[in-house]
Specification:
- With 215 residues, this protein is mainly alpha-helical.
- It has a domain at 2-78.
- The protein has helices spanning 29-37, 43-46, 49-68, 74-77, 83-212, and strands at residues 2-4, 10-14, 17-21.
- It has a 3-stranded antiparallel β-sheet with strand order 1-2-3, with no helix packed on it.
Length: 215
């Protein structure tokens, strides 16, 4: 695409660079015509030294402007940024940022793994302590159970001994009771015999006395 500057130069855009078209050293036709049409001011026509100085300054300024018009504009002589170079720079910056982010994630991953290992170690230590405490409590419970069983066996043995003693006492009392009953029966029999003898003794004495008296 072709363009024309305010100074009268033609240039075109090709890709990412600016290329001038035509002869840059030659001044534009308008500038040449303008410089040829303008002649220095004659001080005799003004009739004044002051006007002569003013016109002289204006003419010198115009000449300097026309002499500079053949040079390249500053925006054409300045280096144009290369899109490829910018793309490479952005790509390098992107890769650098990617490396930084990757390194940060790697550091975080390492820290996370270390934290996980530490937590696992703490959990293993806690489990070992809990297992030791559980084993100790189990031993204490078993010891208490054995002691309680021994106490129960002792109490049971004492109860058995007490019951056996009570049975022996009951048997002894029962034997004594039976012996007492037998003795009471025997004494009752003897008492009944004595009563019979006592009852039979007066009748015999009466009959004997009757026989002794004369008739």
């Amino acid at each position: 695409m072709a363009y024309r500057s305010n100074d009268g130069f033609n240039f075109s855009l090709k890709g990412n660079s600016v290329q001038p078209s035509g002869n840059l050293s030659a001044r534009p036709s308008s500038a040449r015509n303008h410089s040829q049409s303008k002649q220095p001011i004659n001080p005799s026509r003004t009739g004044s030294a002051r006007d002569h100085r003013i016109n002289t300054n204006i003419s010198s300024a115009r000449q300097r402007r026309h002499s500079n018009s053949g040079q390249r504009p500053a925006w054409l002589t300045s280096p144009t940024p290369d899109v490829k170079q910018i793309t490479e720079t952005l790509q390098k910056e992107r890769e650098r940022l990617s490396d930084i982010i990757r390194q940060e994630f790697a550091d975080r991953l390492v820290l996370t793994e270390e934290e996980n290992r530490r937590i696992k170690g703490d959990m293993a230590e806690l489990r070992a302590r809990q297992q030791i405490e559980l084993d100790r409590k189990k031993e204490e419970i078993e010891l208490l159970q054995r002691e309680k069983e021994k106490e129960l066996e002792t109490v049971h043995e004492k109860i058995k001994q007490a019951i056996s003693k009570k049975d022996e006492q009951v048997q002894a009392l029962r034997g004594q009771f039976e012996a007492a009953v037998k003795r009471a029966d025997h004494l009752e029999g003897l008492l009944a015999q004595q009563r019979k003898l006592i009852a039979a003794a007066p009748s015999n004495s009466n009959s004997a006395s009757k026989k002794a008296l004369p008739s």
